[in-house]
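Handout, section 3.2

Students often ask what a structure token actually looks like in practice. Rather than define it abstractly, here is a full record for Quinone oxidoreductase. The first block is the sequence as you would receive it.
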Amino acid sequence: MFSSMSRCPMAAAAARAVMRAVRVSEFGGPEVLRLRADVPIPAPKDTQVLIKVHACGVNPVETYIRSGNYARKPALPYTPGSDVAGVIESVGERVTAFKKGDRVFTSATLSGGYADYAVAEADTVFPLSDKLNFSQGAAVAIPYFTAYRALFLKGRAKAGESVLIHGASGGVGIAACQIARAYGLKVLGTAGTEEGMNIVLRNGAHQAFNHREANYLDKIKEYTKMQGVNIIIEMLSNVNLAADLHLLSHAGRVMVVGCRGSIEINPRETMNKESSIIGVGRFLETEEERRQCAQVVLEGIEAGWLKPVVGPEYPLQEVARAHEDIIHSSGARGKMVLLP
């Protein structure tokens, strides 16, 4: 199903104009992900940069887009992937912030990140600190920008409030734990395994709960002394949303970050506490929001509290297995990454 090109120096030089890239020519299951070795290397336009990809994050939303069951459908064929880390290969004529050889990460490629090279607008690219390796760099943009936007730009979190992060051992969950702890919130997190719970506790949570236990909701209520939590960051709202409404305090907010289907709820539960359900759409961020998120992230890296946790790493030719695992694995253990 997959093809590959020789990685020896002479072959690489001879094939400099083309690269390996995962292409999707029809919507469907993971089997539609095809690694091609004859994809032209994109050229950056005036305000763009070309990045030699060293690592690319894998996100659940990419599986929804690939399947065709998502509101945003790219034109076929396309290359998936948004958040990459790597080295600047070349820049457009109007780019002054970066030069060839700079280590960077980006929040949004234009050509797709599951590839040897990717083009991005320069204003979506940020310097990658030497404190982080490339796999960690690929675990920054989508998880941390999403987490900060959900907590503060949309959720209006304040120091001293409590937050429950449902599915806290994945990329966005760990990011939310670290950010919430750094900004003075009381942090609760859930995970599906003992290992996941330990990861959550090591990354800022004051308390962790196993969401596979039948009585875990009662344990959360007991921990909050039946007062509930101010904010819930929800990664699987089609499973948890109805229960979330019972866990909120007065004027609590559920931030819907992830969803894989429909669920039935009783709207009266929002009336009883004047609570809110707020969707968080990563693709809807404004330029100002992106700048705010970037500032927080870069400051957090320098301060040392922002430390991405990398989970499973896959070579590019195993992209189909990565898409299977990110949906069906028994429990998240950090950010999933592809390595070209």
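Discussion prompt for tutorial groups: The longest strand covers residues 48-57. How would you have guessed this from the sequence alone?
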